[in-house]
Amino acid sequence: MILDAHTHVWPHWPYRPDVPDSGTRGRAENLLLEMDRAGVDAALVVNARIDNAADNNEYGAEVAAEHPGRLLQVADIDSRFGPDYHRPGAADRLRATIERFRPVGVSHYLEPVNDGWLLSDEGLAFWAVAEEARLVVTLAAPPIWYDDLREVARRFPGVVLIANHLAVVTLHPDGVDAALKLVLDHDDVPNLLVKVSGYYYGHDRPWDYPYLDRLPIVRAFYESWGPARMVWASDWPSLLPHHSYVQALRVLDHADFLSADDLAAIRGGNLESILRERGVL
């Protein structure tokens, strides 16, 4: 199977500047069309209740129910752009989210400043609920959070943590090399994975496909974390100003350090194993 680890869908286009087809551009039907054309079997739909998208969890649940086994909901929980960010009661809100939406996983967007929440009493209670539910948790986590994320992964081996977009090392204020020193480890936390996506973030030429200057970052993860801890993602529809959905899938063809087996694992095999273990596929 080919599985996409990071997509969004929107009933109304949330980004600025606006687009003339704001009522349709981000809808699930367009994502499914791109998946069909590219031969992608299923995708995680990562909800994010950003500006003008307070109903994104509801829409994610709706399209997941309409396309079972094809679109798999990852519900937004307490992300930095919402009022509940690291407010007391996160474990109870997670239980309520699980009960209401029955998602495959949850998505949490963290601030650039590490406030210590992941390993606080509140955070540990949250992770205990996530482990009990065997959730996949996707995280927009700047590099400053990775010491704490590794500790979470060790304490809660039943939770799969997946970092967004090459761990957003391309947005680190001190540069990519400094970011990688904070992020990379040596295979001691097999349940902490990274999405291979988002090459254009922080790029001065975000249209410069196939991003040959970003492939060394992919190689750094490959050599440190190994291919079993990497999953391909498109970042649809955020990719649209920069390249096509098919190009998102094929960019790793230019990574000559990856074998055919590595590519198969990254493009779907790793995520398929995780989801099958949880009875999702």
Say how many strands there are: 8
Q: pLDDT under 50 segments (min length 5)? A: none
Portion of residues within helices: 25-40%
* Major sheet attributes: 8 strands, parallel
So, the CATH homologous superfamily? Metal-dependent hydrolases
Q: Provide the residue-averaged pLDDT.
A: 97
CATH topology label: TIM Barrel
CATH A-level architecture: Alpha-Beta Barrel
Number of self-contained structural domains = 1
Approximate strand percentage: 5-15%
> What is the number of helices?
9
Query: What's the order of the H and E elements?
Result: EHEHEHEHEHEHEHEHH
CATH top level label: Alpha Beta
Q: Per the principal axes of the C-alpha atoms, what is the gross shape?
A: globular
Structure characterization notes:
The chain is an alpha/beta fold and 281 residues long. The protein starts with a strand and ends with a helix. The longest helix is centred in the C-terminal third of the chain and has 18 residues, at 260-277. Helices cover 35% and strands 14% of the residues.
Summarize the structure.
The protein has helices at 28-38, 56-66, 90-101, 121-132, 146-155, 176-183, 215-224, 245-250, 260-277, and strands at 3-7, 42-46, 71-76, 105-109, 136-140, 160-163, 192-196, 230-232. The protein has 281 residues and is of the alpha/beta class.
